[in-house]
Design goal:
The chain is mainly alpha-helical. It is globular, with a radius of gyration of 19 Å. It contains ten helices and five strands. The longest helix is centred in the middle third of the chain and has 25 residues, at 128-152. The strands form two sheets. It has a three-stranded antiparallel β-sheet. Strands 1-2 form a two-stranded antiparallel sheet. Helix 5 crosses helix 8 and helix 5 (128-152) runs antiparallel to helix 10 (244-265). 34% of the residues are buried.
Length: 270
């Protein structure tokens, strides 16, 4: 990988700077990985499909819009509607059915939807065993991302992680659980982003819809929210101190704790 180390007057630690080509690639991947902005109202099982703008080809926009809509919904919600109607999607997007059909074929190739002949198209929901495996893979990827954050991210960017939880530092987590769930999900996505690794961003994309949904579904169980914010502060402090070994271990353990929780307490996925 190309790139250069720089130091600045604002940060005595070396900061990784990517080449222009890597910057362009990262911008593309980031748009795909985080195109659906998280808000509390979207933490449900409804697919929200906005109309297309005229900034790119219809086929590409249909694909990106449908993909982001799927990533933005809770596919594990009890009343999630997993069936996709091609005609309805075309009407929502304001296009013909051809680009929708092409977009769905691409999404099936990525494993996000399943096309069943003579029955329809369905968003893919994983089994409990598959979810646990995906969380463990996420743990490996996010922990590596944490190490990269220590090596590459600017201090002011790392500092943005603390601001995500500025409204929950006085025992306000339980009374604002939806808002905290959004901040929690954003925290983990932000660590991936701050790794500044296009490859890592690409690897986590197909895990994102499942891991994010399970995090959102389980954050209110037991005392997970309260323990979560404590874990996050410890992770932030390790990142801020550029302690890559500690940050990597804390992030990995935090994710593996979620896998253990799903394994022992989540029954609706069986």
């Amino acid at each position: 990988m190309s790139g250069t180390w720089y130091t600045t007057d604002h940060d005595a630690v070396g900061v990784w700077r990517r080449s222009p080509r890597e910057e362009a690639l990262l911008d593309v991947v980031m748009d795909q990985a985080t195109g659906a902005e998280l808000v509390p109202e979207q933490l449900n099982g409804r697919l929200v499909v906005p109309a297309l703008s005229a900034k790119a080809s219809v086929g590409q926009l249909a694909y990106e819009t449908l993909r982001n809509a799927i990533l933005g919904m809770d596919i594990y919600h009890s009343d999630a509607d997993l069936r996709l109607d091609e005609k309805t999607l075309a009407a929502d997007l304001g296009v013909s059915r051809t680009p929708v059909r092409e977009a769905l074929a691409r999404l099936e190739h990525e494993g996000l939807v399943r096309i069943v002949p003579r029955r329809g198209v369905y968003i893919v929901r994983k089994s409990k065993a598959e979810i646990i495996e995906m969380i463990r893979v996420w743990a490996a990827l996010e922990s590596m991302a944490a190490r990269m954050v220590c090596e590459r991210a600017a201090s002011e960017d790392i500092g943005t992680l603390r601001t995500l939880f500025s409204n929950f530092e006085d025992g306000e987590v339980r009374s604002h659980l939806n808002e905290y769930s959004v901040a929690n999900l954003r925290f983990h996505q932000r660590i991936i982003e701050l790794s500044q690794s296009p490859l890592l961003l690409q690897l986590v994309q197909n895990l994102l819809v499942h891991v994010r949904a399970i995090r959102g579904r389980t954050i209110g169980e037991d005392d997970r929210a309260e323990r979560s914010i404590v874990d996050h502060m410890h992770i932030f402090e390790a990142l801020e101190a550029r302690d890559s070994e500690l940050a990597e271990r804390l992030v990995r353990d935090h994710a593996l704790n979620l896998a253990d929780h799903v394994e022992h307490t989540v029954d609706h996925l069986d």
